[in-house]
Structure formats: C-alpha cells, structure tokens
C-alpha cells in the first residue's frame, strides 16, 4: 500500500478555537514572569556590579544558578519539589510564572550589568562634578542611557521566555502546547495541530519583534 | 584676598606609581592658574583631586574653606565642594539623552531644587553667553565639538561655581574650533572667575594666566607669572619642555 500524507486543512482550522484558549495563558505566564524578571534583573544586575563583595556574591550566585540549570528542571522543582518544603501545593500557573521570573531575571541581570557598564565613566564624573549624588547621577544620567542600550537584548529575552513557556505543558498549565496535546489526544491530527501551534507562537513573537523595532527606532533617534 | 584652593604637601599614588609628589599650590579668588606639563605628568590628576574625582593618599586640600581629607576618611565636605566647583572635561561628557538646554537645567533642578522656570531662564541666559542660544533644543550629538564644549561650560556655570576646573578643554577639538572655546574661557577670566586650567595651549596660558605651574613627573618644578615661566624658565626641565612645545 502506498503511503500518502495529505495536510488536512479542515482539521487545522477546526483546532484553532481550542488552541486559542491557550494563548492567554501563554501570554500571562510570559509577560507576568517577564515583568517580575525585569524587577529581579534590575535588582540583581545592579547588585552584581556593586563595589562590596558581600552584595555582589549573592547576585552572582543567583545569576549562575538560574542561568546554569535548565528551565525545565527549575519549573519541575518549583511545582513538584517546593510543595514538600512549604507543605502545600503550588498551582501550575504560579509555578510557571515563578519559573519564567527567576529564569529571565538571571539573564536580565546580565543585560542590566552589561548595559550599565557600557556607559562611559565620563558620564558619571560629569554628574558628580555638577554636585549630583551618586544615586541621582545613576538614575538621571547613567540609567536612561543604559536602558536604551538594553532594549534589544531585553526584547530578545522576552522572545526566549515566551517560547520557554511551551515547556510548562509538563506541569499541566493550559498554555498553547498543552492545549495542542489535549486536542491531539482526541483527534490524532498531530501534524496539523502542531503546525497551528507553531504559527500562533510565531504570530506572538513577530508582533513583539515589530513593536520592539518601533521602540528602538524612536529611542535611538534622540541619542 | 581669600584663597579658594589651598593644597599642602599632597601626595597621590596609583598603586606603586607616585603620581603627585608633595604638591603645594594655592589659588586666590579671581585668579587664573594654568598648569602645563607633558602627557602623564600628573596635571589632570591634580585638578581632578580638587573636586574629589580622584582621592589622594596624604596631605591637605581645601576648597573655599571646605577640607578634603586623604583616602579612607569620611569626606564630609565633598558634596558641598562639588556644588561650588564646576568642571569642564576634555571629552565634554555632555549627557547624550538630554537636549542642550536640559543638560544645563539638570543640576540646578536636582541639586539646588530650582524650579523648571528658573532653571530654564538660567539655561537660556547661559547659552546666549556662550553664543549658541539657537541650539538649545538640539541633542549634543548634533553639535560640533566646539559647540559641545561651550555647552559643557554653560552647564558647569549654571551651578554658579566659585571655581572652574578645565581639564584639557581643547585637546579633543578640531583646530578650527579651539578658538571659540578659548574665547569663552577668556571672557570668563575677564569677568573674574577663579579658574584652574590644564592645557597645552601655551598662547592662552601666556595671555590669560595670572600664574603658570609646570609639572614634571608629578612634581611642580616651576611656577610664576607667565612671562617669567615662558620667557625666562629657571628649571632646565621647563626649558626643554617649552623648547619642544613652542617650536611649532
């Protein structure tokens, strides 16, 4: 018997409404996690360039641990491991957001460190020589310039984190991939469904890329 | 006449390198002091000590009555000194993310809590004074080097400093732009601003300085009125330095 594969367009189209239910979860985990990750990244990124070693050290430890272990292991640890410690279950959505937050926070720390260190020392000296305090000099002179340089790598991290949420199907969050798996279990149309899943991810990431490009263009003209 | 800067037996090291050796120097109110010397002689380091951008290891330094103490101590007067001392850098160090006017308004608003209206008025007046009122709303990168350095001078003046430090203000400029910056400095000197200037512009030093200091390997080896230092240097190292720089 000759093997013939036909892409079943109807199956693909039929799966869309069910798959779309996963999109809000994907977005919530991604952007919820990234928002917290951004705060963590600023905090630990700035700690990591502090002149006191006892402040630098915890930041470095955090960054190395969460950059150096797979995010899949991190989310499994949070979802299955941590309940043993805290004596109660963690819901999968919270575990997913926490994993993205901690993981992206480590990478964003490095982005923050690199951005701040890329600003010429003369900028700080000019601020100090005008009588501004170190804190004022940092937040009104160094940070705005550093932040502009951080936009491209931050956008990159956002895209990575959005895709990372796909791994959280293993803890049963109803995000895009999980929805796909559930759908396929009933229809056995893996090719079509994963194709649609991939397209949906691409639509999210392309939209983000586009927004970032616009932001970047606006930001760069004024420097 | 009151002394704005008083430096006594100041020593500074970069690691093992002894970059400033027993520096003694005073600047009176209204005086223009020019410091000359070869690259790496320590002249920039010296004026950077005056507003605490560099720390020193031993000796005594006082700016308008406020003491700066050697490294490791608690610099209680540093904030006060920096409010009263303006600095102009070789590389301008304008803030690229702010317009020219905002560059000038930043410190008065942040440090002296001036209102936007007052700071804006000061900025416009100062831009007028340095001859670039029409560039107020541009970003620094759209200005020529000479214009940028004039903005940097205006920015420092906005804090109404008692003393202005100039760290090779024309060394990064194209030759045709040096004149416009020196003109502004000359004007400032004429109005009675107390100035410490590190420069390679010997013509400017001769014309504007009240006193000239020649630094060699971290040591002041010659000081005096410009006509004495330039026309009749006593130290042979000054003689050889001047013969090298004045030849062309």
Write a structural description:
The complex is a heterodimer of chains A (223) and B (248). With 223 residues, chain A is an all-alpha fold. Helix content of chain A is 80%, strand content 0%. In chain A, helix 5 (92-117) crosses helix 7. The longest helix of chain A is centred in the last third of the chain and has 32 residues, at 190-221. Chain B has 248 residues and is α/β, with parallel strands linked by helices. In chain B, 38% of the residues lie in helices and 26% in strands. Chain B has helices at 43-50, 78-84, 100-111, 116-129, 145-157, 175-190, 202-208, 226-231, 236-246, and strands at 3-14, 17-28, 32-37, 58-63, 66-68, 85-88, 163-167, 194-198, 211-216, 219-224. In chain B, the strands form two sheets. A six-stranded mixed β-sheet of chain B has the order 6-7-8-3-9-10, with helices on both faces. In chain B, strand 4 and strand 5 form a beta hairpin. In chain B, helix 4 (116-129) packs across helix 5. The N and C termini of chain B lie far apart (38 Å). The A-B interface holds A 120, 122-123, 125-126, 128-133, 136, 140-141, 144-145, 148, 222-223 and B 51-53, 79, 82-83, 85-87, 89, 91, 93-97, 106-107, 110-111, 139, 141, 152, 155-156, 159, 165. Chain A: The chain crosses the membrane at residues 25-49, 61-82, 193-215. Chain A: Belongs to the binding-protein-dependent transport system permease family. HisMQ subfamily.
